[in-house]
């Protein structure tokens, strides 16, 4: 593995650890993220720590403030709900176009990803399930054969990734996620654009009860 790839992997590991601390309530809104302390905690240089913080800033979980540096952001539930509303429409369109435009080989690859995710779901290997889940969505973005839509979907997914990952840690959510993927897949394989759009919108739409629990943790 190249040094650049190793640094990226370490940054991802640090980011995920900080995300976990934020969602568990260990890191409260307004808590300062000190690069030196984090580097010592993970026994790494400050470079991957700095990259991890930049990723968190991009997702909105962390903000940079003058004279304070990086701090855990206050939860803006209203904005998060709005982002999920837009995400559901964007991904719904991706699924609609994918149902019309995916090639035979692309449909087979999507089926293969779903089959792989079944194993992760049953074994409760959540990190691996999330990785395959991401690939499943990306395959549908690509399968839309619309570059503008693809770019929009990737950007929104990156912004909402921590919240989507959090949902998968909720009891039974991984089973629901897998079942919903199956509904999207069935519609795409059947070349049914309307059903694919509706199934994907349903899948992405924010779970009010899950995020109500999250809000109670953060307050």
TrEMBL record:
Lineage: superkingdom: Bacteria
GO molecular-function terms, A-Z: DNA binding; DNA-binding transcription factor activity
Protein name per its UniProtKB record: AsnC family transcriptional regulator
Protein's UniProt keywords contain DNA-binding: yes
A Pfam family the protein falls into: FCD
Gene3D superfamilies from the UniProt entry: GntR ligand-binding domain-like, Winged helix-like DNA-binding domain superfamily/Winged helix DNA-binding domain
The entry's keywords: DNA-binding, Transcription, Transcription regulation
Domain HTH gntR-type: 8-75
Record lineage: Bacteria, Pseudomonadati, Pseudomonadota, Alphaproteobacteria, Rhodospirillales
